[in-house]
Amino acid sequence: MIQLLFTLIFAEMALIVVFVFKTPxxxxxxxxxxxxxxxxxxxxxxxxxxxxxxxxxxxVYSMMKIQKRWIDDGDLNPTDQVLLAxxxxxxxxxxxxxxxxxxxxxxxxxxxxxxxxxxxxEVAKKQNQAFEDGKLGAAKEIKAMxxxxxxxxxxxxxxxxxxxxxxxxxxxxxxxxxxxxKQSDGFLLxxxxxLEENQNLRSQLQxxxxxxxxxxxxxxx
Length: 221
What we know:
This protein is mainly alpha-helical. It contains 4 helices and no strands. The chain has helices at about 1-20, 25-35, 40-75, 80-220. Helix 1 (about 1-20) runs parallel beside helix 4 (about 80-220). The longest helix is centred in the last third of the chain and has 143 residues, at about 80-220. The chain is rod-shaped, with a radius of gyration of 62 Å.
């Protein structure tokens, strides 16, 4: 019994040392405990722990009985002394093994929680990095859009200026066309007047020619 308890305690201490230092063995030990705690593993472990606790309380009770007999009799025989030492050692070893088992359970729990937190932190960092990258990309895209908007505004201003210039030129051309039309109308009126005067002059010349011809014919007769 005592040798078994010593073996159990040394095994628990070795497992605690494995948990404390980050080595490949720690990963294997964690995986082993994960498998042990699945299914009926926790029930079996609790049953073993309760059995050890009951045996420890039995040893404590036996020690109390021996101490009571010692108080009543005032002296202990060698057998009671050996039994007292044996029960004390067994109770101490069982209590220490239960304590180490509790420490192992808590270490395993905290290491798992730490690994989960680290994975969560890594995922959060990746999401944050992706968000920052997306934010940076969005900022670049917004900057490019702002530059494009500025370029478009400049082009619109240039087009508006060109439109004003073309409108002014069109107005000037329209005014020139109206002036030319008026001048052309004046020229047509002047042409009609001159044509009419020319016809009048021709009529007068023809009448004069007829008169001269008529006078000459009279002289000949």
